[in-house]
């Protein structure tokens, strides 16, 4: 986990889309004085003229000629129909990546990364609307369907506009840790669970409504270490099992059993990062039968073992 401020450039251009730009600004440019370390971000452009976005809003970002002063660049979007990249931008983005920087794209921004060669022989994704065009135009890129984002630690692209938020949360998670990423996710009021091929290392808040159903879920969250089954939850919600299952899937788009497993995984991840407890003790505290069961679910959902997760995301306890 890094304890220093990262310099971030959010790139605007003549194709800029306001929503994607707003997502990038919300993630990386919004001041967050509650954190000791945070990103220092500029919205930049290589263009000379004032830019017009959707709705006729005018932008006046910082004019730059290179990206030498930044550790990361975010491309909120790019043109899928005319993906030509000006030489000055292409050279600057490639140079940032080649010196160890990070490059992210949201939605159609992956067209720019592919156009300048950063995605050759790599996995990538973009919005489903552009998938066929992307695969035809860039056969040297391994296109991945049905994921929210693809991210290897230095190069990332999201499958759509809102999926850029999922990618951004994972980047924050890798830079500043689970607790910081969770606070940012809560501020953004993220959905209960974002299904996708990429594991989300961020707490999944529950959609709350003032009724017995939400009270039951709150109870479950505070008793995850206990033996909880779906029949007990239905009883506490004062519903039949069939009604409870139907309402649960309608509200959270997953089964009660899947939700319980997900919440236990979230608790286990938090304990692995913030305590020195053994894997066996973490398993018990999170409501799994034993360490073997915990390892099974980590492999299934995160493609990591608990020990690998701790080593990757907790500098303090990486030696265990």
UniProtKB/TrEMBL annotation:
SMART domains: HTH_ARAC
Top-level taxon of origin: Bacteria
SUPFAM superfamilies: Class I glutamine amidotransferase-like, Homeodomain-like
Entry-linked Pfam families: DJ-1_PfpI (PF01965), HTH_18 (PF12833)
Span of the signal peptide: none
InterPro entries for this protein: Class_I_gatase-like, DJ-1/PfpI, Homeodomain-like_sf, HTH_AraC, HTH_AraC-typ_CS, INH-QAR
Assigned keywords, A-Z: DNA-binding, Transcription, Transcription regulation
HTH araC/xylS-type domain residues: 214-312
Protein name in UniProt: Transcriptional regulator FtrA
Organism of provenance: Litoribacillus peritrichatus
Gene transcribed to yield this protein: ftrA
């Amino acid at each position: 986990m890094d304890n220093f401020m990262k310099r971030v450039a959010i790139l605007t251009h003549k194709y800029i889309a306001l929503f994607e730009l707003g997502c990038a600004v919300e993630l990386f440019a919004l001041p967050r004085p509650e954190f000791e370390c945070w990103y220092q971000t500029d919205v930049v452009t290589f263009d000379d003229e004032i830019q017009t976005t959707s709705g006729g809003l005018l932008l006046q970002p910082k004019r730059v000629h290179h990206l030498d002063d930044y550790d990361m660049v975010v491309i909120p979007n790019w043109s899928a129909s005319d993906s030509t990249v000006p030489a000055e931008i292409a050279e600057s983005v490639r140079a940032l990546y080649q010196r160890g920087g990070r490059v992210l794209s949201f939605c159609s921004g992956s067209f720019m990364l592919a156009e300048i060669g950063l995605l050759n022989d790599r996995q990538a994704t973009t919005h489903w609307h552009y998938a066929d065009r992307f695969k035809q135009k860039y056969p040297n890129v391994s296109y991945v369907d049905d994921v929210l984002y693809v991210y290897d630690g230095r190069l990332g692209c999201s499958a759509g506009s809102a999926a850029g938020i999922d990618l951004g949360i994972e980047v924050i998670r890798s830079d500043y840790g689970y607790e910081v990423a969770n606070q940012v996710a809560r501020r953004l009021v993220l959905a209960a669970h974002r299904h996708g091929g990429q594991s989300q290392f961020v707490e999944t808040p529950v959609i709350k409504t003032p009724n017995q159903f939400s009270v039951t879920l709150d109870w479950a969250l505070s008793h995850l270490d206990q033996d909880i089954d779906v029949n007990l939850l239905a009883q506490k919600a004062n519903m039949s099992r069939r009604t409870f299952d139907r309402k649960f899937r309608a509200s959270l788009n997953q089964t009660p059993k899947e939700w319980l497993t997900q919440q236990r995984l979230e608790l286990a991840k938090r304990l692995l990062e913030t305590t020195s407890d053994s894997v066996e003790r973490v398993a018990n505290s999170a409501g799994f039968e034993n360490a073997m069961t915990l390892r099974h679910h980590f492999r299934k959902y995160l493609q990591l073992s608990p020990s690998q997760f701790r080593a990757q995301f907790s500098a303090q306890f990486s030696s265990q």
